[in-house]
Design a protein that fits this description.
2 strands; mainly alpha; two-stranded antiparallel sheet; 2 helices; 81 residues
């Protein structure tokens, strides 16, 4: 029997963060019983933080599609301010 398919496709990204921040987070995620950070803990943390940021950003803009009231996509350099 094979693995079950994921409900939502996942993509990998590569980010660079300060080493000191990485060390602090790794210590918080570290499981002393197993002597390591559990598989998937970094992904779970980053997913939760990014989802919260997206939700808060969308709520503060008052919409759910990432568009301004003039219909231009966020960051669209072609629109006049």
């Amino acid at each position: 029997m094979g693995r079950t398919k994921l409900e939502v496709k996942k993509v990998g990204i590569k980010v660079r963060i300060p080493a000191q921040l990485h060390a602090k987070v790794a210590l918080l995620l570290f499981d002393p019983l197993h002597g390591r950070v559990h598989y998937g803990d970094w992904t779970s943390l980053m997913t939760a933080l990014l989802q919260r940021w997206v939700d808060e950003t969308q709520q503060s803009k008052g919409n759910n599609d990432g568009r301004d009231s003039d219909g231009a996509a966020d960051g669209d350099a072609s629109r006049a301010d």
